[in-house]
Amino acid sequence: MKKILVTGAMGQIGSELVGKLRETYGTSNVIATDIRAGEGLATEGPFEKLDVTDADRMHAVAKQYNVDTIMHLAALLSANAEAMPKVAWDLNMGGLVNALEVARELDLQFFTPSSIGAFGPSTPKDNTPQDTLQRPTTMYGVNKVAGELLCDYYYQRYGVDTRGVRYPGLISYVAPPGGGTTDYAVEIYYEAIKNKIYTSYIAEGTYMDMMYMPDALNAIIQLMEADPAKLVHRNAFNISAISAAPEDFAQAIRQHIPEFKMTYDVDPVRQKIADSWPNSIDSSAAAAEWGFRAEYDLAKMTGEMLEKIKEK
Ligand code: AKB
Q1: Which residues are catalytic?
Q2: What dihedral angle (degrees, nearest 10) is formed by the CA atoms of 226, 228, 234, 236?
Q3: Which domain does 117 fall in, by range?
Q4: Residues forming a β-bridge with 166
Q5: Does 52 lie in the same domain as 64?
């Protein structure tokens, strides 16, 4: 992994991943791309405007910079995908197959994230195993399962070095998520600082897996650098750090802001999605095969989130 093209670089993961990769591999070796103008990223290193549904342009940019790795992040998240299922299919699946084709044609290493959204109501809910029933009931979940299988297929059929993880809800103070089901777990920190009150659209008692962004970024680099001989799975590794419900976030915030209050106004669409996802997932395969270990629990992440948002 010496020269890396990142799609969706202006998104929640990309905005931080590009900086981390540039620190690790050198600024000129990380080509950030996005359909949006690359504010910040564009001035700090190579940036190209790229719509991932344009296969020819993706191929041309990868060739122009002579990259050896593609990290494909551009995608619509769960709640947005539920509001626009056909748009989600075209973007999530069209973008992925284009990126896999570029990897096949130019012999690139490949990373793309799956999600806890790849599980459904019939999946075991607690400590969800790595290999289990996957019958998601959302368009996002359908995209994620199909994507996991497609990545396996490109490895088995063409030998493309595809790798990936199933992300939980990601929490960060740098770039906001957009259109996800787990977004409340980011919003709550901003509202705690601004207004000392948050109205959760997810009901009390709804557990989902979450992870702080530094752990999520380390996981990508660790997996991509892992010895392929040790990988039994390649794509869609379960990785987890925190299993929490809205009231657990509220309680962690109260350790720093005792007067913080939480109310509920449940959004039925996002609640239905959350109810179909696991409470917690088992990441022992990732730990055994490439040494995954999360550094941040809820308390440590909460302290840092509140401090950084205050500084902002
Ligand atoms: C979402 O809520 O859609 C994402 C995810 C868990 O994949 N954060």
Answers
A1: 140
A2: 0
A3: 4-168+212-238
A4: 114, 238
A5: yes
Residue from 183, 211, 271 to probe ligand 1 pocket by mutation (most atoms less than 8 Å from CB): 183
Q: What is the per-residue pLDDT across 146-186, written as a single tens digit (0 to 9) for each?
A: 999 999 999 999 999 999 999 999 999 998 888 999 999 99
Mutation choice for ligand 1 from 12, 73, 76, 77, CB with most ligand atoms inside 8 A: 77
Question: What is the C-alpha to C-alpha distance for residues 27 and 12, in angstroms, rounded to an integer?
Answer: 20
Across residues 237-257, what is the average pLDDT?
98
Whether residue 122 sits in one domain with residue 10? yes
Do 265 and 221 share a structural domain? no
Cα–Cα distance, 117 to 253 (Å, whole number): 26
What φ, ψ does residue 138 adopt, rounded to 5°? -115, 160
Q: Could you tell me if the CB of 118 is within 6 A of ligand 1?
A: no
In a domain, 62, yes or no: yes
Residues 276 and 154 in one domain: no
Q: What is the pLDDT of residue 296?
A: 98
Q: Quick one: what percent of the chain has pLDDT higher than 70? A: 100
Model confidence at 41, in pLDDT bands (50, 70, 90)? confident
Q: What is the model's pTM?
A: 0.97
Tell how far the Cα of 44 is from the centroid of ligand 1, in angstroms.
Answer: 28
The verdict on the CB of residue 180 being under 6 Å from ligand 1 is yes
